[in-house]
Amino acid sequence: MNFLLDTCALIDMIFAPHRLSKNAAMAIEGDNALSVSIVSFWEIMIKQQIGKLDIEPTSAQELQHICDNFGIDILQTEIDDIDLVRNLPLIKGHGDPFDRLIICQAQRHQLSVITSDRQFSRYGIDVVW
Domain segments of the chain: what residues? Predict the structure, then answer.
């Protein structure tokens, strides 16, 4: 199967694998293709800057190196992904722009998302947690 890790799942996988659910850990450890959106790198850098996240590495290049070592493909954001955002339903209580773009990428590339965020499934995508 092909999976897209959301930002929190990526952080947990790298820095706190004990926080992953059993299903998420099995999907990650199995013989599956894993991707992460470049948007997650952006989100991590912003959260580090504003003091909401205190992890190493402290650069996107270091995150890229870690993902390469784990065999995680980095999904670039394309114009077609961004165009899908305007058609994504506006769900009350879930307006996170990073999540919305990750959801659009999952839809466009037909990927299941590994996330603990229950809001993702409200967009009609397959979610594993």
Answer: 2-128
